[in-house]
Design brief:
Strand order of the largest sheet: 3-4-5-6-7-8-9-12
Helix content: 25-40%
Largest sheet: 8 strands, parallel, barrel
CATH class: Alpha Beta
Number of strands: 12
CATH topology: TIM Barrel
Radius of gyration: 22 Å
Strand content: 15-25%
CATH superfamily: Divalent-metal-dependent TIM barrel enzymes
């Protein structure tokens, strides 16, 4: 508490009254009390443009693909790319995201899956980026799939010091990671567990059958995950509403508060001090001006004091 001394002239004694805090320090201290929010953004026009876009949206974190997410073609950074990325990373936390094509659950069936994974890890290393979100992949034979995922992650972690954020799935098709049991089965087979964290996608969780609109369902899921993996293993949130119903197993992200999850869940999450040290990335559809609208919606959910301090 900030205090200044004043004198009660009638009683001739000092008494403390609240002082007006330094606004910038006050904001920084308050900001530590809630989730840091941002978007998945394109790097197609260079990292300086990504930074400019992030600032225009008032992002506090960003997530990026390292390369064209729908192509196997390899990429190489130029010196100016690395310098520009460093400027971005000085401003906010950055998370890489593995592209769509590498399927870690089938690295034993097609060598391109492992080679593509390793290539993107190298792209992270060359930038100085040490955080990569990965989908666990899909395979009808879940036992073989889980073994393959762990083998691929172990291969990478034997060679590169990078934090891996394992993302839960919606359970669509043969995707792996729809519940804590499948996530745990992968986690238990990984050797360097200190480098492994979980990325919780709210839309995927809801679509997989966890009706997180009910607070008890959310708390049970989180408590069970922490009991299995230990506290401190939740490392990132993907903040997405869902266009499909709970249990649909259909992966369709939607705009915050306009989908089937609804606004109340996100109000609870962004103000929950349990996750105040973490970041949350929106992967909502890129439609017109909806990024700005989604950020406005998210900021409107903050406690009144927090909202004013960030105006």
């Amino acid at each position: 508490m900030w205090v200044r001394e004043t004198v009660d002239r009638k009683n001739r004694r000092q008494k403390p009254v609240p002082a007006v805090p330094d606004c910038s320090l006050f904001t920084v201290l308050l900001r530590r009390l809630i989730l840091k929010i941002g978007f998945h953004l394109s790097i197609s026009n260079g990292f300086d443009q990504t930074l400019k876009h992030a600032k225009s949206l008032r992002c506090e974190t960003v997530q990026i693909f390292l390369k064209n997410p729908r192509s196997w073609e390899k990429k190489k950074w130029k010196d100016e790319d690395i310098s520009a990325f460093q400027r971005l990373q000085r401003e906010m936390a950055v998370f890489g995201h593995l592209s769509y094509l590498p399927n870690l659950a089938k690295i034993d069936e097609n060598e391109r899956n492992l080679h593509g994974f390793v290539h993107e890890v190298k792209l992270c290393r060359d930038l100085g980026l040490d955080r990569l979100v990965v989908h666990l992949g899909s395979r009808a034979d879940k036992t073989k799939g889980i073994t393959a995922i762990a083998r691929g992650i172990n291969y990478v972690l034997e060679r590169y010091d990078i934090k891996q954020f394992l993302e839960n799935s919606s359970g669509q098709g043969a995707s792996i990671g729809k519940d804590n049991e499948e996530i745990t089965m992968v986690y238990e087979k990984i050797d360097r567990k200190e480098n492994i964290f979980i990325c919780i996608d709210t839309a995927h969780l809801f679509e997989a059958g966890h009706n997180i609109k009910i607070k008890k369902v959310w708390n049970v899921f989180i408590d069970d995950l922490e009991e299995r993996l230990g506290k401190g293993k939740i490392g990132l949130f993907h903040l997405n509403d869902s266009r499909t119903l709970s249990g649909s197993h259909v992966d369709r992200h939607w705009h915050i508060g306009k989908g089937e999850i609804g606004i109340n869940f996100f109000r609870f999450l962004v103000n929950n001090k349990r996750f105040a040290h973490l970041e949350g990335v929106m992967e909502t559809p890129k439609m017109g001006n909806m990024d700005k609208e989604n950020m406005r919606t998210m900021r409107s959910l903050l406690s009144p004091l927090m909202s004013r301090s960030l105006a």
